[in-house]
Write a structure and sequence with these properties.
Layout lengths: L13 H9 L3 E5 L2 E7 L7 E7 L7 H18 L1 H10 L3 E7 L7 H23 L4
Parallel strand pairs: 3-4
Antiparallel strand pairs: 1-2, 2-4
Helix pairs in contact: 2-4, 3-4
């Protein structure tokens, strides 16, 4: 499986994004990231992601873009564990990563937190289906 981030894996459907933030989605924080996710059927990829870095936290676009790049790279490298669980459950997710800190953080820290976040999403997806069986 290639370590790429295709266009289909980027969340760009306005209706899905509005549904995620209107309510009904689940979220948790793994500082410096807040993760919001929602099971959605109308996506092409198993997981579509959205990355948000607030202009209030970083005024300069250079810094915002750096943080987005770090988050994207951490996700791209570590996404396979989550994709395997979703393929097994045959469900699709829309996931938003929101950067919470107002300090720049090293890529290794973001990658570590991303691993934790993806493991927690996979755990919660498997836990949702467990009581029904």
């Amino acid at each position: 499986m290639p370590n790429t981030l295709r266009k289909a894996e980027r969340l760009d459907k306005k209706k899905v994004i509005e549904k995620m933030f209107a309510g009904g989605s689940r979220s948790f924080a793994v500082f410096p990231l807040r993760v919001v996710y929602l099971p959605v059927e109308e996506l092409e990829a198993p997981v579509s992601i959205l990355i948000s870095v607030s202009k209030r936290r970083f005024k300069r676009a250079v810094k915002r873009n750096r943080v987005k790049r770090q988050i994207r790279e951490a996700y791209r490298v570590n996404k396979h564990a989550l994709l395997d669980v979703l393929a097994e459950k045959q469900c699709r997710l829309a996931v938003a990563f929101i950067y919470l800190s107002d300090q720049l953080v090293e890529s290794s820290v973001i990658e570590d937190r991303m691993k934790t976040a993806l493991a927690r999403i996979a755990e919660k997806v498997t836990a949702q289906d467990a009581p029904e069986s």
